[in-house]
Amino acid sequence: MRPLSKKLTRLGTETAFQVGADAAAWQNKGHKVYPFHLGDMNIPSPGHIVEAMNKAIRDGYTGYAPGAGISPLREAMAENVGKDRGLEYGPENVSIQPGGKPVIGKFLSTVMNEGDEVLYPNPGYPIYESQIEYQGGKALPYGYIATDSGFEINRDEIESQITPKTSILIYNNFQNPIGAESSTEEMQWLADLALKHDLWVLSDEAYFEIRYAGKSTSIASLPGMKERTVILYTFSKKFAMTGWRLGAAIGPENVISSISKFNTNHESCSNHFVQYAGVAAVSGPQEQQKVILNQLKERRDALMTSLLAIDGVKVSKPETTFYLFPDVTEIYNRKDYKSSADFRLDALHETGVSFCSREHFGRRLSHEKDVFIRFAYSGINIDLIQEGLERLKHFWE
């Protein structure tokens, strides 16, 4: 029998799901699990969005839709995304997707040639690395520097890697897993870099609206950037719609029309009736989003308090995303661990607390010495946050 494609050796995965499998296996043995590992949400989708989907089904929107998405949603997205970012978009600038994740691969398929070099954040969302390498690009990871107030992009690391073959910058402000947010000056520096080296930019804005103070800015809104930037948008976080699988690519018309051609090749179209739920989400009442944000903020604060009560934990408080990325180097060394997998699994088996390690977000860079882990608090209530972290405190101390 013929072997499978050699390209599969270059295809990665989202390894946080393996952490979920470990947690489920432990739970199936009768143990209590505190799920901090996956950025899913246990908050209900707003009722008017659910009703809009049900109405669309009753009205017969259960067949194919246009590959680029239905016009009402593309128009609503163009207006909403543009208004929030101080930009003007039309429906021709929007391609509806079955989630935010497909934008990554389709964007790369549209603008990247084999052998092109792509700058991407590491630690970062692991699908960047997976898709770059699967499609024949060269992945150039850039890291972050931990400061007392959070994380900053390692600028020297980016600049030292750029060559004439570097064609793309992937940028995830409000970053998963570390919760980092660029300062105005840092974002402008990145924009200047993209302009200087004529880079395409994928701006992953999955957490653009998940913020507890301040105002979000898109790199696409900076001078000269709209024409070279594609925004990755998802309904998953803002509207608590993770399982609905609805997102969009927003950007220059020539790139977006090609992405829509991939839609036709890959899945024909995004789910028809779910797109009408998307119209209700974007154009309908927004009060429920404030409720969602308040819940997440209360969870963040409870988790911060509990983590800082553990001797040996260092963690900064981000104003965006629903992740904390504590430095646990002191605990790791004190307990004489040699493997982050052992560190994670021992915590699960001794306390029920399930979290991801830094290694689940791209290959560890050679200069990294400290040990970080990620806690997601979008899928766990405050009482369980406090209970689980108390158990973890007793185990680690």
If you consult CATH, what is the topology of the largest domain?
Aspartate Aminotransferase, domain 2
Regions with pLDDT < 50 over 5+ consecutive residues? none
Largest sheet: 7 strands, mixed
CATH class of the largest domain: Alpha Beta
The strand order across the widest sheet is: 2-10-9-8-7-3-4
What is the name of the CATH architecture of the largest domain? Answer: 3-Layer(aba) Sandwich
SSE pattern, N- to C-terminal: HEHHEHEHEEEHEHEEEHHHEHHEEEH
Tell me the name of the CATH homologous superfamily of the largest domain.
Type I PLP-dependent aspartate aminotransferase-like (Major domain)
Number of domains: 2
> What percentage of the residues does DSSP assign to strands (E)?
5-15%
State the distance separating the first and last CA atoms: 55 Å
Average of per-residue pLDDT values: 95
Q: Tally of extended strands? A: 14
Rg from C-alpha positions? Answer: 21 Å
Sheet/helix structural class? alpha/beta
